[in-house]
Amino acid sequence: MTDLTGFLGNAYPWVLAAHVTFVIYWIAGLLLLPRFYVYHHETTAGSAEDRAWIERERRTRNIILGPAMFVVWALGLLLAFNIGAFEEGWFHAKLALVIALSGYQGWLGVYGKRLASGKRSGSNRTLRIMNEIPGVAAAVIVVLVIVRPF
Ligand code: HEM
Question: Within its chain, how far is the Cα of 16 from the centroid?
Fold first, then answer.
């Protein structure tokens, strides 16, 4: 935690703090957006409520999810190079999960566009199950980076 020998020097704890802050923003967005989809799924296509959800979802994707994911990746990679994490098992597992979470965000974008065009594909139950993915992934990632079991 306080290893200041990497190229980041004294900036290291600040970069780490910023990384964790943007992780919070990112995961908050990933928990919020699929919940919006559950409510949106229940509306009638073309209604005023439908249009309101489309706008809320668009803003959540563009203002929270997109920028937060970018900053988390940028700072996370800086930290990884700084501590030489690429040789460590826990980091490989974390990277795999983070790539999966980024893919999940891609799926959210595609699904949102489908909802916005009036399609109501997939059951509400499927959506609710998809909702659990970011919470579970975040918990496993936190164990990987803090416990570092391998
Ligand atoms: C997007 C790609 C990501 C990369 C490349 C990355 C990389 C890293 C690295 C290398 C560290 C260790 C820093 C150190 O100990 O000096 C770290 C710390 C941390 N990361 Fe990430 N990370 C990413 C995303 C995430 C995500 C999605 C989460 C949570 C869901 C997360 C949570 C954390 C936490 C809590 C720490 C602090 C652990 C500590 O006390 O050292 N990171 N990250």
Answer: 17
The single-letter code of the amino acid at 76 is G
Residue 122 has a CB neighbour count (10 Å cut-off) of 15
Q: Are 8 and 17 in contact (CB under 8 A)?
A: no
pTM passes above 0.90: yes
Structure confidence by residue, pLDDT tens digits, 129-140: 999 999 999 999
Residue 110 in contact with ligand 1 by CB distance below 6 A: no
Q: How many CA atoms lie within 13 A of 136 on its CB side?
A: 7
Give CA–CA dist 142/24, Å, rounded: 12
For the chain, what's the residue count?
A: 150
Please say whether the beta carbons of 150 and 90 come within 8 A: yes
Would you say the CB of residue 93 lies under 6 angstroms from ligand 1?
A: no
